[in-house]
Here is the input.
Amino acid sequence: MANVTFETVKAEEIKFGRNNFLEVARKKATTEQGENEFIAISRGFFLPDGTKKFKRSIAIPDEQEIKDFIAKNIAEF
Here is the structure.
């Protein structure tokens, strides 16, 4: 089984509700075979000490066609 390490290249978040946040991040997965960058959209909440706890996440390929599709359809809903 390949050893995978993840690195957050850039992340932006927005807080909503009493204790929740959404985060959009560019991440890099690295294995012995190479690297792969992707976009992760995550939802989570803050623990009482202020640390983040992630609940759900979706990763999408870093392909312009897919990013355009998601942006267009979110804007239309």
Remarks:
- The mean pLDDT is 95.
- Helices lie at 64-76.
- The chain has one domain: 5-76.
- The first strand starts at residue 5 and ends at 16.
